[in-house]
TrEMBL record:
Residues 301-570 form the D-glutamate cyclase-like C-terminal domain. The gene is DGLUCY. It comes from the Eukaryota. The lineage of its organism: Eukaryota, Metazoa, Chordata, Craniata, Vertebrata. GO terms for molecular function: D-glutamate cyclase activity. Belongs to the D-glutamate cyclase family. This is D-glutamate cyclase, mitochondrial isoform X3. It holds the Pfam family GLUCM-like_C.
Length: 581
């Protein structure tokens, strides 16, 4: 990128004049006209214009519409005082029936065809580069004097008529310590694509190799950098290709139209508009996003369920933000496996206590409302009991439909992997999140104990195997919910259990979950997960991040989610939450 003679500090109208006269070799406009808005360009026949505008509104993350011209209008008075779209981008692309037929420096030779064509000016991420720099964050592609990296993803946009394509994103390496600052700097600049749509492993977007961008140049990450992805207006180029219009023009990726509009200084208002970033997975690396308001609500829930009615010392097991991070991971999951069952009453038939199943059903009900796949795995000897509980829950209206009920048996070393993955292939997991709630957990000696140190191993199937196997499967995360330290997943806090819980040295579960939700009663933990998932689903910042800023907000489903929340009117009291473990 050539920025000689202070080219990058020139005002937009001067830059447009230089570009128009083709006096300098400008390979891209990143870093130019700092603080001013830049625009992606799509030029289509007027017969396609209405549908393309609808496509932009349906996918306003990648395609924020700044201006739509009238047919044959080469100017854009609301964006610039003196401009000519035929000459004011450094380079254009020509498409005929969806095929790229060449790049040109000017569209003047197509002036006759342009009289029946409409120009769309779409927001560009180059516009927010100054805001990122003002936040003390380096722009690696500007440092490396190259274009930004752009990639096609596997994320489908919302289709309108003939306009259908997958999302295109830009990637900017951001130091890990600056992630939240980068999100804050861009979140309110909605005409420049707003906040990132993904932070972490590119494979989660279907991007296989960062060194091979589909458009632009490879940008090298420094040690400690995290790849951060923003929606990109080159999505419009892909839409043009797929609609197969007889003739269409776009800017060449990175060669933007520079407007006279400044990026307004945006002050984030209420806590519902302040984004926060949390890491929810290390393999693959994955961060999620949520509003400060939603975060505080979930923290309040975590505090509520942490009340210790039995005064057993569970306050020492508490780890802050575990409920929030667990629910963020569950929110991103497509298919969830739940397990429960603690046969503490070993001399009775059935030996199960009442804590656990109600909380499991509360989680399952919310997952059903959120249109996720959900199944329950339990002990073979308890299948009939759990089937009756599920059938009753359907009759009571707690569940919309029966939850598949599974059992697990250890037959060989690969049993757990084959249970969790299609044909035992770790690249094809059936579930991407596992939840254990009030489930007997294996102690360090291989046995299972109730709170009174009685060994109940003969009543417990080795479902712990699934949580251990999940640790080896990329993309599968786990949550353990417990109230005493002897429950599956509590291995994460086992040292605290040994130190602060009665009989802890013997009963402490040795099997860890990624997230440990500690509650005074485990059912409370299940109810809190259901409520936290509702809070996340109604959080606009999290909703946008989940859908990658394409399509429409899902908040219209709020009534469905609300109806799935646990409540007294659903007769949860019929399960008699007597805690005896």
């Amino acid at each position: 990128m050539l920025l000689t003679g202070g080219l990058k500090s020139l005002l937009p109208h001067v830059l447009r004049r230089i570009i128009r006269c083709n006096r300098h070799s400008i390979s891209n406009t990143s870093g130019m006209a700092e603080g001013y808005k830049q625009a992606n360009i799509v030029i289509l026949h007027k017969s396609l214009a209405d549908d393309f505008e609808k496509f932009c509104h349906a996918n306003n993350g990648p395609l924020p519409l700044l201006y739509r011209s009238k047919p044959g209008d080469w100017k854009c008075p609301s964006l610039s005082s003196d401009s000519d779209i035929r000459t004011d981008c450094p380079q254009y692309r020509v498409y005929e029936h969806g095929a790229f037929t060449g790049s040109v420096k000017s569209l003047k030779e197509y002036s006759e065809q342009l009289t029946d064509m409409v120009t769309f000016y779409l927001g560009c991420s180059f516009s927010f580069e100054k805001a990122i720099q003002n936040a003390g964050i380096p722009i690696r592609n500007v440092e490396q004097e190259c274009n930004v990296s752009m990639y096609k993803t596997a994320v489908p946009c919302y289709s309108i008529s003939t306009f259908c394509c997958n999302l295109v994103v830009t990637m900017r390496p951001i130091p890990e310590s600056k992630l939240e600052a980068a999100v804050l700097a861009t979140s309110e600049l909605k005409e420049a694509h707003g906040a990132p749509i993904h932070i972490g492993d590119p494979g989660l977007l279907g991007i296989q190799d960062l060194s091979k961008p589909d458009y632009g140049d490879p940008v090298h990450l420094h040690p400690g950098d995290i790849p951060v992805f923003w929606a990109c207006g080159v999505t419009g180029v892909e839409a043009v290709i797929n609609c197969r219009s007889p003739l269409a023009f776009t800017h060449s990726p990175g060669c933007m139209f520079i407007t006279d509009l400044k990026n307004d200084s945006v002050t984030v208002g209420s806590s519902s508009e302040v984004p926060q970033v949390y890491c929810i997975s290390q393999d693959p690396l994955h961060y999620s996003m949520v509003s400060a308001e939603a975060t505080q609500k979930i923290k309040n829930l975590e505090n509520l369920i942490g009340i210790d009615p039995g005064d057993r010392g569970i306050i020492h097991l508490h780890r802050p933000d575990e409920l929030l991070k667990a629910c963020l991971a569950i929110s991103h999951a497509r298919s969830v496996l739940i397990t429960t069952g603690f046969p503490t009453h070993f001399s009775y038939d059935p030996p199960e206590e009442n804590d656990g199943p109600p909380g499991a059903l509360a989680i399952a009900a919310m997952l059903q409302a959120l249109e996720k796949d959900v199944a329950i795995v339990t002990d073979q000897r308890a299948m009939d009991l759990n089937k009756k509980i599920i059938d009753d829950a359907v009759q009571l209206g707690i569940l919309k439909r029966p939850v598949p009920l599974l059992s697990y048996r250890r037959e060989n070393a690969d049993s757990a992997l084959r249970f969790l993955c299609e044909n035992g292939n770790p690249r094809r997991p059936r579930f991407d999140h596992l939840i254990a709630i009030e489930r007997a957990g294996m102690a360090a000696d291989g046995n299972y104990y109730n709170a009174r140190k009685v060994n109940i191993k003969h009543l417990v199937d080795p479902i712990d195997d699934l949580f251990l196997a999940a640790q080896t499967i990329p993309g599968v995360t786990t949550t353990g919910v417990g109230d005493g330290g002897n429950e599956l997943g509590m291995g994460k806090v086992k040292e605290a259990v040994k130190k602060h819980i009665k009989n802890g040295n013997t009963i402490a579960c040795d099997v860890e979950a990624d997230f440990t939700v500690v509650a005074g009663v485990s059912n409370w933990g299940g109810y809190a997960i259901a409520c936290a998932l509702y809070i996340l689903s109604t959080c606009e910042i999290h909703d946008r991040y989940l859908r990658k800023a394409v399509g429409f907000p899902q908040l219209l489903k709020k009534k469905i989610w609300l109806s799935a929340l646990p409540s007294v009117t659903k007769k949860w009291h019929s399960f008699h939450e007597t805690h005896r473990s």
